[in-house]
Design a protein that fits this description.
This protein is an alpha+beta fold. The chain has 26 helices and 33 strands.
Length: about 850
Amino acid sequence: MKRNSGFARAWFLLGCLLFAILRTGAAAPPPFLHIENNALYLGDLPFRNIGVTIPDLFDRFLSGHEASAEKALADAETVGARFVRCAAIPSSQTLFSRYRSDPKGYFAAFDAMQAALQKHHLLLVPSLLWDGQTLVRATQEPNGGLRALFTAGTPAYQLAKAYITAMVSRYANDPYILFWEIGSDLDRKADILSPNDPVAYSSDLLSAFLGQMAQQIHRLDKRHLVCSGNGMPRPDAWNLYESRRQGVTQPAGSPQPLDTLPQFREMMALRNPTGIDILSVHLVPPGEATPLWLTRDDTQALTLPWVQRIALDLHRPLFVGAFGQAVQNKGVEQNAPWMLNLMQRLQITDAPLAAVQNWESDPPTDFTLSLQATPRLAVALKTANAFIADTVIRHVLVALPPQLFATETAVANDRLHTLATLLQTLSLPLLQAMRLPPNGKQGSLINRTGTSLLLPYEQSLRFRVADLALLAQTGFLSSKELEGWIRLLARLQNGSSPLHFPEGLTVPAYSIPDWIAPDGTACWFPDAKGDNDQGTGAFGHLPPADGAFWFLLLVQADITQHGDPNLLRVRFRTAQGSLPLWQVCENAFNSIAADGATGLVAVGGTSQEARADWVFADRVQKAGFCLMPSLLRLQAAQILSTLFSAIDDAVRARDYQSLADRIRASLISTFYVPLGQVNGKDVGLLLSATKQGRREDIWASAYALVLQALPSDIGNAVSRHLDQLYRAGGLTLQGYVRALPPSGSYGGYWEASTDAPDTGENGGYWGFPVGWLAVAIAQTDRPAAIQLLQQYADSLEKELSAGAPWEWRNGKTLFGAHCLLSAAYPAESVLEALTGFLSE
């Protein structure tokens, strides 16, 4: 149960970064963007990301609409954007007039915008002149148009230079400025109008203007790069430009001959003159404007690799400053295959920096992307950014990008992922609080085991093996820590002969302890006190039937994290002397007796065979075949098969795989009870035990689905039934989960338990299996799974100061404060499934 997905790893790392920032209150300023080998770098790492354009962001801070701006920035952070592109000049003349009448207040609004961006860990690409029209209107040029702006000496030109000087001088040393953009789509009408038209402008005039503004910026600011902000040249741009140079004065009517790729390259070079560090294009589905050198396909972003090739030829990085298409219609999200494909292509290693064309504009347009109105595409954007972040962090080269999905399932999975990540974040401080280093002290407890261990909850006096094994799955713990636990348990493992204690207690050969005492001694029974006092027999005469399986789960986690299966060949100290780890594991597995025909684990039968079936039901008396230890044995057999295969022991690998298959095949006939149909679909339940304890086992049923231990039709039937129970109410309390249904012929309370009804294992509500239930329900009803996790996360956040998460609770009792397992493990269960069978 160990994730190998880069997606999950990237968001976990980013979550840790966020937690560190929250703890310290601030993050160090970012380094300045620079160019290495035609690629953009921020510090030592390539800077790759899909950012967003919020055109009116500055306008909102100038006009007192900061709340909507803050929301747009928060949502941008949520989808993994690391920068925002916006107009650094307002479109409204009334707002722009404040630049002259109240410069202090004007720049204070820009400072407030910068502060909001920093709050959400976003850098800024300010488009200094945007479309240029604000300056043209402000100077009341008699002929208007961009020609007046681009012509040296005009009032509009002089105002542009003054505005750029004021803005760049003020923020030249600001590391939160990613780079400067001169304008946005200033090349859109170059060469189109007749030269005789007073507002016409040529590519030559545009190029001269951009070069002059770039030179001005570089003179004022030696640290930031400069981008033109140009869009995509028309498919006939070069031929139109040449016709103007040859004296053609008619306005552009019928299209000119379409440009070749070399001619397109020439126009890109002309419109991005010396001084422009970063090439810029804006991309949309080309439609009728498809270039000569491109196959028309408005579902595939085929332009991108060709434009990237041109940028490499010109020895400059590329910025896709805006990309988009219509994504909504009257507030209803529309399919946008071209945009989805472009984001997919942006995941490869050599892809350029890019920004969504329109993010949460106010008011929205059909091109506006947002978490609320276009959740499918927003989740695709978030997924792409997570993948990009992971490949950058791990220095992974990607030539073929993974597929992106823009579906309702992807949106639901993202919500589950977000809630699971929140639980991870909540568990980080608990991890430190519950960790006890060698000789570390908490209250009266001193860790004398010789290795760092984790307490199950505050004021616990024991280290449970099951807790350690489950927490090992989370990725929170170092390989050194995990190996320390394995060495401790190997040393405490029973030898080749059974141990006998008073009260008729017996510990089979090679057993693994149920828990470890603070002084480092093995405790085989739940009520043991250590050494020769192993309890009264109230919990059975044999140890719980699960210790060895937790040990194998722990070994698997360490080898997965360590990345080297040869650890299995390393010799460990045991009661039998020095043994290779694989032998320790195999001995442990065989310490728990099972039925030869089915492979299932049975308990009870005679008083001498009585035992708890597993650690979280050790106060419940059961008899017959038992579901949960059988599932754990199935999982352990699968682990052994995989591990032996990794060290080339094909015989043992085959034998354990055969055993796992045999156990899996026996589950349905032994534990499954069909319950008919609901809405024309099968439903059914799984029993906890076949004799005493013949109740529906919610936790084990959910775990069977987590393990994918059942055929898909039976698994779906169990999932629907669990969903039905959850929606009926009573199965959960503020997200915490009961072990069996609150009522019904297979529910209520256990037949025999030392816990009173509605307490502990006999009707209490527990935290650690919340993830199991969420995953099980999500198999057929993701909205219900989201609701369950939301309830649980809300409960934890609300009660953190009071001691949450609890190990278990009911309407009156809160037990086991600050239970690490109750936060970290549900998160891991959900994240594991999202990268596995619950993925798109």
